[in-house]
Fold:
Amino acid sequence: MSDSRIIGENGMDGSTEGYLCFELTNVGSKSESLQPIVESENGERTAIYVIGDNPFQNEHLRPLEGQNLQVRGKWRNGVLRVEPKDLTVLTPTPRMDETDG
Structure:
């Protein structure tokens, strides 16, 4: 997989739409964790953080893994920070790797 990660400028508004997955980051360090990523249909990947969530637990996002989301927020240090109210679950559409055919 090529790294087509989207990173916005600090303080700027941003939005993305795609499937939520978790990716292991900072491997081998004290801050190793599974980071939530929204991957769009064209393969662009955006790291997100829900304000108020523990970034090592992601309690708000865990139940949404694999769901098609739309998120809006502000960029900070390469991560799109979103308020829970700005996170929308879209009508599910099957991913290509989940369909027969």
